[in-house]
TrEMBL record:
One of the protein's GO biological processes: methylation
PANTHER family with a match to the protein in the record: METHYLATED-DNA--PROTEIN-CYSTEINE METHYLTRANSFERASE (PTHR10815)
Organism per entry: Undibacterium luofuense
All copies of domain Methylated-DNA-[protein]-cysteine S-methyltransferase DNA binding, residue ranges: 75-158
Lineage per the UniProt record: Bacteria, Pseudomonadati, Pseudomonadota, Betaproteobacteria, Burkholderiales
The name this protein goes by in its record: Methylated-DNA--[protein]-cysteine S-methyltransferase
Keyword presence, Methyltransferase: yes
InterPro entries: MethylDNA_cys_MeTrfase_AS (IPR001497), MethylDNA_cys_MeTrfase_DNA-bd (IPR014048), MethylDNA_cys_MeTrfase_DNAb (IPR036217), MGMT_N_sf (IPR036631), WH-like_DNA-bd_sf (IPR036388)
Keywords: DNA damage, DNA repair, Methyltransferase, Transferase
Length: 160
């Protein structure tokens, strides 16, 4: 697969994490299928991101400290703040997050799907009222992204 979009690709148990950076900020983290090869960091910031991703993959209690680009609408940022407050090992439903924000579950789900920084903003901790729910814009129960969500929740010791 073409890894030219990424300044690094960090190997992960589910495939990889693509890292995009520019101008001293993290622009995006992407879950990548195993067909992407690992790619060494291109610069100091990308190396910092790669090290922190590996630390999280080794220890689910690791806390990220990265300069994230300012992206998203005001509503998306509120959702992402609420998601970031969910402790490791716990989950909330889209409906509960929506209730906290006086919004609708579908709007929360769309904001989760628009998250540019998965792992750092742990949208995998938001689930459906009837099960694991979709992930990263995909609702295919057997798809790659839902498999990543399952792995992350298991890694963090969450039950759903």
């Amino acid at each position: 697969m073409n890894d030219a979009l990424f300044q690094a690709v960090v190997a992960a148990p589910f495939g990889g994490v693509g890292v995009r950076t520019a101008a001293g900020e993290v622009l995006e983290l992407c879950y990548l299928p195993p067909s992407y090869r690992e790619k060494s960091p291109a610069d100091a910031l990308t190396e910092r991101v790669a090290i922190q991703v590996l630390r999280y993959l080794a220890d689910p209690d690791f806390r990220f400290d990265l300069p994230l680009a300012s992206v998203g609408t005001g509503f998306q940022q509120k959702v992402w703040q609420a998601i970031a407050a969910i402790p490791r090992g716990e989950v909330l439903t889209y409906g509960l997050v929506a209730k906290q924000l006086r919004s609708a579950p579908r709007a929360v789900g769309q904001a989760c799907g628009a998250n540019w920084f998965p792992l750092v903003i742990p949208c995998h901790r938001v689930i459906s009222a009837s099960g694991i729910g979709g992930f990263a814009g995909s609702d295919l129960d057997a798809g790659f992204h839902v498999g990543v969500k399952r792995w992350l929740l298991q890694h963090e010791g969450a039950s759903w």
